[in-house]
Design goal:
By secondary structure, the protein is an alpha+beta fold. It has 19 helices and 22 strands. The strands form six sheets. Strands 13-12-9-10-11-14-21-19 form an eight-stranded antiparallel beta sheet, with helices on both faces. Strands 3-2-1-4-5 form a five-stranded parallel beta sheet. Strands 7-6-8 form a three-stranded antiparallel beta sheet, with helices on one face. It starts with a strand and ends with a helix. The structure holds adenosine-5'-diphosphate.
């Protein structure tokens, strides 16, 4: 039985995992880099080990140091969270070799699903529909031109090792094939150390719909229904909801069954997600399987009534699943909003900095998973996701109304963030009607930006944020002065007196 878990991650997901461990009376060990000395996950864990300098290659991806921390702390299991080492088969293998339980699937399942070409082949064999395209890696430009002409434009050139929207290029005409191949390959080589690419038909106006699965070591697999993830910017999700506004019970059942088939084809064990792309005619195709916990897992937890981290730990302990497929139901509707420290007006560029003020929404049906607090400096080294707002309602309308209230109450100052942009999407006509595809943000950018209007004390927050930034950067106000200003920011004359104006 697992008694102590080392969480090989940071940010909101590390905090979230620690919370479930606490509820299970399992001790927790955090690891951290230079930049994360004061990070929330470090404060939350029972113990914390420094594992290296700020760049993730030297810390959160440093397998030797993480294993050393596990040894020193006496942790008997490692939870990898998402990103970093979560889908690294070598890491899972290394844990096995060291006698430490890896809370996740086997190294072979990770490898098979981590390589998109191998995954495609495995799914074809298992009878799960895949996007029409090549079954093997592309070996030359000439071959690519030939295949693309046969498939018909538009196509996607995709890196086999790809992830996070990287190594993917849309090609709509012959003249662009060679340059797209070159750039997809070089991006993949830099990001993943593997420049293998393959070709897929480009699905026009698609939906991205994924299914959560859980599989134990006794051959039991259940699916916990779908998540609609079509609200994306730069091929990355920012709002997810469940149930999907476009699925009917028959399609849900069919896709859920295929998700189980996909998991069974690789002897899957643990929590995983099978991603599908759905075309205009509601044909669906396997896109990939993520062999880990997803960022958007809380909406499933809310609607199905399950703690996925606890289930992962239960499975890692070798216990049979406690859930039965026929007992699983979707209750109400849940939506997740990903809050990023980024600038929507500047092509969503990450915007690190010090959080000077934060108002977290509370109340009925609201959950916030976050990793920031007032005074915390968001490092520039990592993904700028800083919090997730998860809202539940008895139906979609109820969830939308509650989301509007909760998003309005959510305020972060000191760093640029996408809260107002998320509010703009939430109020937009297509989203309200549940009529949107993966192109929604790109196609409605102007409207969504205009929707980004300031409301009541939000406006003050924006002004004070700009003002505090100015003071920090230009005038180098002391921390004491900053605190005095923050405490008095509604009183202009007192702010003037603090600044001796
Ligand atoms: P990654 O592993 O980088 O996340 P995915 O294969 O999961 O890449 O695709 C990410 C997103 O890219 C999808 O949600 C979808 O919006 C878009 N996409 C991927 N493949 C296709 C395709 N064949 N046609 C249209 N859009 C696609």
């Amino acid at each position: 039985m697992i008694k102590k878990v080392l969480v090989a991650n940071r940010g909101e997901i590390a905090v979230r995992i620690i919370r479930s461990c606490r509820e299970m009376d399992i001790r927790t060990v955090a690891v951290y880099s230079d930049a994360d000395r004061r990070a929330l996950h470090v404060l939350y864990a029972d113990e914390a080990f420094h594992i290296g300098p700020s760049p993730s290659a030297d810390s959160y991806l440093n397998i030797d140091n993480i294993i050393k921390a596990a040894r020193l702390s006496g942790a008997d299991a490692i939870h990898p969270g998402y990103g970093f080492l979560s889908e690294n088969a070598d890491f899972s293998q290394r844990c096995k070799k060291e006698g430490i339980i890896f809370i996740g699937p086997s190294p072979s399942a990770i490898s098979m699903m981590g390589d998109k070409i191998t995954a495609r082949k495995t799914m074809l064999k298992a009878g799960v529909p895949v996007v029409p395209g090549t079954d093997d890696r592309i070996t030359s430009d000439e071959q690519a031109v030939k295949v693309i002409k046969e498939t018909g434009f538009p196509v996607m050139i995709k890196a086999s090792a790809g992830g996070g929207g990287k190594g993917m290029r849309l090609v709509s005409r012959e003249a662009d094939i060679r340059s797209a191949l070159r750039s997809a390959r070089s991006e993949a080589k830099t990001a993943f150390g593997d420049d293998s690419v393959f070709i897929e038909k480009y699905i026009e106006s698609p939906h991205h719909i994924e299914f959560q699965i859980l599989a134990d070591s006794h051959g039991n697999i259940v699916q916990l229904f779908e998540r609609e993830c079509s609200i994306q910017r730069r091929h990355q999700k920012i709002i997810e909801e469940t149930p999907s506004p476009i699925l009917n019970p028959e399609m849900r059942k069919k896709m859920g069954d295929d998700a189980i088939t996909a998991a069974r084809a690789v002897d899957y064990e643990g929590a995983g997600t099978v991603e599908f792309i759905v075309d205009r005619d509601r044909n669906y195709y396997f896109l990939e399987m993520n062999t880990r916990l997803q960022v958007e897992h809380p909406i499933t937890e809310r609607v199905v009534g399950v703690d996925l981290v606890k289930e992962q730990i239960n499975i890692a302990n070798g216990k049979p699943l406690r859930l039965r497929q026929k007992e699983l139901k979707q209750h109400g509707h849940a939506i997740e909003f990903r809050v990023y420290a980024e600038d929507p007006e500047n092509n969503f560029m990450p915007a690190p900095g010090v959080v000077t003020h934060i108002d977290i929404p509370y109340g009925v049906g609201v959950r916030v998973d976050g990793s920031i607090y007032e005074g915390f400096e968001i490092p520039l080294y990592y993904d700028p996701l800083i919090a997730k707002l998860i809202v539940w309602g008895k139906d979609r309308k109820d969830a939308l109304e509650r989301s509007r209230r909760a998003l309005k109450e959510f305020k972060i100052a000191g760093v640029r963030n996408n809260l107002l942009f998320l509010g703009g999407i939430l109020r937009s006509e297509g989203f309200v009607k549940g009529e949107y595809t993966t192109h929604y943000i790109d196609e409605n950018r102007d409207i969504l930006m205009k929707n980004e209007k300031c409301e009541d004390h939000c406006e003050d927050i924006v002004i004070i944020t700009a003002f505090m930034e100015y003071l920090q950067k230009v005038k180098k106000a002391s921390p004491k002065e900053m605190t005095a200003i923050k405490n008095n920011w509604k009183d202009y004359s007192r702010v003037r007196s603090v600044l001796k104006l």
